[in-house]
């Protein structure tokens, strides 16, 4: 897959004289100054790149501009300034007809509220994008059934949407996007309307599908835990601007400012950090023989702590070729999990919380 998404200096301004507003923003004006003139700056100077096969998560509170940004990526909203290119093609320079063609074949969108047709069967809903493309009925039904099976809905093809649970309806929406074999998936708060357990299941489903399909995905959410679980890279938005872009570890361990830090203070670090973050890459000769307890760079912190607590030696980190790429000393685990006051603690050290001693668990 050679596709890549790139946004360069995107602005979206609603109201009078938007071009003048963009110039003011470039010169340092903020949102509040523009609001006095009845102008709303929804997205301000947003730039980022999404590599092929990557899940890029845009995270922010309500009103931060994330959904507006998403709608500029497939041309549902025209940028006031800036460009969007996909697979080397400048989408902002296309005619309406050309843009519709790109949306029908290269870009699919999964909405928050399912957007299923109640008068169409599950199979017909999943095949709708192919119907728009003019794909013959037999082929579109075959491809729809394949997509439904990937999403765990084999056997439900002839059912009606109102016969499905909310999680199953969202799976139909995901299957519809997959059936077109689009290179880019745009997902706008796609799981936020679901109950927590179903939401977790859908996150698992997406991650499992991504291992096989390796789509390029832009995922919008207001939930930092969801962002850190799904995102290969994360962009944090505030008041229309992207204030930090990086991996989950970057956001968690190196927040760009107090705003980002305030988001991360309640995140369970043990669910985000991996062996790659804490391992020593320079291995001495006496550390090379670390016994049979080994991990990979992607081993979760919780599992790493459990192994380190039961063995007397450093834990070896092996790559996919079983080559030694690092070791984790128990002392390196200190500092990545903090107590209530931010004091570094190791994963097996006791700590005082609410007057009671307890084990600081990863």
From TrEMBL:
Molecular function terms, GO-annotated:
ATP binding
Q: Which residues form the ABC transporter domain?
A: 5-264
- Give the matching CDD domains: ABC_Pro_Gly_Betaine
InterPro entries documented for this protein: AAA+_ATPase (IPR003593), ABC_osmolyte_uptake_ATP-bind (IPR051921), ABC_transporter-like_ATP-bd (IPR003439), ABC_transporter-like_CS (IPR017871), Gly-betaine_transp_ATP-bd (IPR005892), P-loop_NTPase (IPR027417)
Q: What Gene3D superfamilies would the database entry show?
A: P-loop containing nucleotide triphosphate hydrolases (3.40.50.300)
Keywords assigned by UniProt?
ATP-binding, Nucleotide-binding, Transport
Q: Which domain of life is it from?
A: Bacteria
- Quote the PANTHER family the UniProt record gives: GLYCINE BETAINE/PROLINE BETAINE TRANSPORT SYSTEM ATP-BINDING PROTEIN PROV, GLYCINE BETAINE_PROLINE BETAINE TRANSPORT SYSTEM ATP-BINDING PROTEIN PROV
* Family assignment from sequence similarity: Belongs to the ABC transporter superfamily.
Entry protein name: Glycine betaine/L-proline ABC transporter ATP-binding protein
